[in-house]
Amino acid sequence: MNKQFDRYSSLFFAILGLGFVYESQFISKSSYGSNVGPDIFPLGLGLVLCILSLRLFYETFGYKQEKKAGTSFDVKRFSGILAVFVLYALTLEALGYVISTFLFLFIAFQLMERGNLGKTAMVAGIFSGGVYYVFVNVLEGSLPGFPEWLIG
C-alpha cells in the first residue's frame, strides 16, 4: 500500500461519489411499471463510493512509513479486466443482464485467478441470477433479463 496514492485516490473517489449523488438527483424518480427508479443505482453507488473513500482516507493515517523499492502493477490483468468490462457494457443490451453479467464475472474471475472453472461458473451464475431475481421480483425494477432472440 502506498500512503500517498491511497490518500489521493480516496479523495478522487469521494469527489466522484459526490458527483454520482448530485447527478442522480436529475434522473427521473420512477419509470413505467417499476417501483424502483433509474436514480436508485447511481445514488447508491455514489453513497457507497463516498463511504468507502472516507474509510480508505481514514486508514491511511494508520499506515507505517515504509519505503519499498518500486511496486509493480499487474498491467496485464488490469488491461484484461478493463477490456472485458468494455465488452460487458457493449453487450449488455444485446445479451441481456443475466448472460452478459455471467460472462463478465466468469472471465474476470478467471483473469484474476485461473483454474476451478466449476466454482467460478457457480459464483458467477448465482450472483447474476440472484441480483436479477432480487431487482426484478423483490424490488419490482426492470432489467433486460434475456435477449429476445433467445426466448422467442
Task: Describe the secondary-structure layout.
Blueprint: H1 3-24, H2 40-59, H3 75-95, H4 97-112, H5 117-138, H6 148-151
Helix pairs in contact: 1-2, 3-4, 4-5
Give a written overview of the molecule.
InterPro entries: DUF1468. The structure is a single chain. By secondary structure, the chain is mainly alpha-helical. The chain folds into two domains: 3-62; 75-138, no CATH class. The protein is built from six helices and no strands. Helix 3 (75-95) packs antiparallel against helix 4 (97-112) and helix 4 runs antiparallel to helix 5 (117-138). The chain starts with a helix and ends with a helix.
What's the short version?
The protein is mainly alpha-helical and 152 residues long.
Fraction of residues in β-strands: under 5%
Element order: H for helix, E for strand: HHHHHH
Figure out the total of helices. Answer: 6
- The tally of domains stands at 2
- What kind of sheet is the major sheet? none
> Judging from the principal axes of the Cα atoms, what is the shape?
globular
Radius of gyration: 19 Å
Organism: Brevibacillus composti
Transmembrane segments: 12-28, 40-58, 78-109, 121-139
Protein name: Tripartite tricarboxylate transporter TctB family protein
Domain DUF1468: 10-144
